[in-house]
Amino acid sequence: MIDDECCAACGGPLRDGYYYLLDRPERYCARCINSRPRCDTCAAPLADRHWRLHDGRLLCARCHQTGVFDVGEAQQLYAETVGVVVQNQRLLVSAPVAFRMVDAPTLRQIQARGQPSSHDPDSKTLGLYQRLGKVWAIYVLYGIPRLLFRTVVAHEYAHAWQSEHCPGLDPELREGSAEWVAYRHLLDIGCTRAARRMLTANHPYRPALERVLELERSVGAAGLLTYLRQQAAGTRL
């Protein structure tokens, strides 16, 4: 239970106002906002009770509680996410796609060795769809919360679909449509608040998502997929 009169990080009284994170009930004093290290997942100021993962990332109690660390759980969540995307959005991929859950240094190494990526170099990479040798795989960072895990898987699975059905998309359409798949997936599983947050978050892919949502409003979901194929082929609706 959260005490509205106390700082969620240090426990001290909130006498001179408070700060909070979007969509989070916790309140923080100015000192903790300005001086405490932040959770690597949600950016909340860390309380004394927090976790340091083996790759150096720091997690708050909330993110650690819902984090995906077990490989079996990760495989199940991956399969469930892909199943919902295939069923509801009809994004079928014929080529096998492997799944790997990795730590942050491994994810950076894969990104550096793989094909050129459109991921923003200034943002934290949470997942990749890469070909290394003969293996196409979706790589997801371990320890991220379950809902974020599903969002990342849906986004990267969209890249797998793109590689088969509309390779050569410009970066904005590629990332915008992948975010659209993740956005629709959140709505499909009933996470409307998380979906809305994608439309307000300060994220480099948000303008691309907004462009794709505008396209969807004009031509519908099926028309959007046709549009992506035609754009990749150099034609227009």
User: Structural class from helices and strands?
Assistant: mainly alpha
**Proportion of helical residues:** 40-55%
Output the CATH topology of the largest domain: Collagenase (Catalytic Domain)
Strand order of the largest sheet: 3-5-4
Distance between the termini: 54 Å
Number of strands: 5
Key words describing this protein structure:
single chain, 237 residues, mainly alpha, Collagenase (Catalytic Domain), 2 domains, two-stranded antiparallel ribbon, 47% helix, 9% strand, globular
Q: Would you spell out the secondary-structure blueprint of this structure?
A:
Layout: H1 30-35, E1 51-52, E2 58-59, H2 61-65, H3 71-89, E3 98-102, H4 104-113, E4 127-132, E5 135-141, H5 146-165, H6 171-188, H7 192-198, H8 206-232
Parallel strand pairs: 3-5
Antiparallel strand pairs: 1-2, 4-5
Helix pairs in contact: 3-5, 3-6, 5-6, 6-7, 6-8
Describe the structure in your own words:
It is a single chain. The chain is mainly alpha-helical and 237 residues long. The chain folds into 2 domains: 1-65, no CATH class; 71-232, Collagenase (Catalytic Domain). 47% of the residues lie in helices and 9% in strands. It has 8 helices and 5 strands, in the order H-E-E-H-H-E-H-E-E-H-H-H-H. The strands form 2 sheets. The chain has a 3-stranded mixed sheet. Strands 1-2 form a two-stranded antiparallel sheet. Helix 3 (71-89) crosses helix 5 (146-165), helix 5 crosses helix 6 (171-188) and helix 6 crosses helix 8. It is globular and about 60 Å long.
